[in-house]
Amino acid sequence: MKHTKIGTIAAVLILFIIAAITNPSLETHKTLLKEKLYKKMEDERQKAIQAYQGNMWTESISDFGMTLGKQFTNRIVDQLVYVDNFFFFSITKIDLADSDIIIGVGFFGTVMFFSNFNDINLNSAAS
Fold this sequence. Notes:
Elements: H1 2-22, H2 26-51, H3 58-80, E1 81-85, E2 90-95, E3 100-107, E4 110-113, H4 123-126
Helix pairs in contact: 2-3
């Protein structure tokens, strides 16, 4: 019985140590968020190119739009996204004018973003 309790306590302790060591940094949260946003922009860009296939300007204009979009995304993420670090896990938040919204959680070296992430209105953040 004693060995089972000690083994359980040791396993839990090891799990907490691993969680603390692998807790993602602020930069990891921001980098993964930017990659997710870039992918979403690229998907929308491809839809626009397919919708206007006959137009020779579509791809050039969409390339320019992607460049501007990435710069805007970098600026928004760098200025408005922060992380609450709870040592064993971390929470990704975005600081909007009227409230802070939790958009993800990081643990064991990974960051997962919630479904409400797609519903955020960045126009309220810009004001």
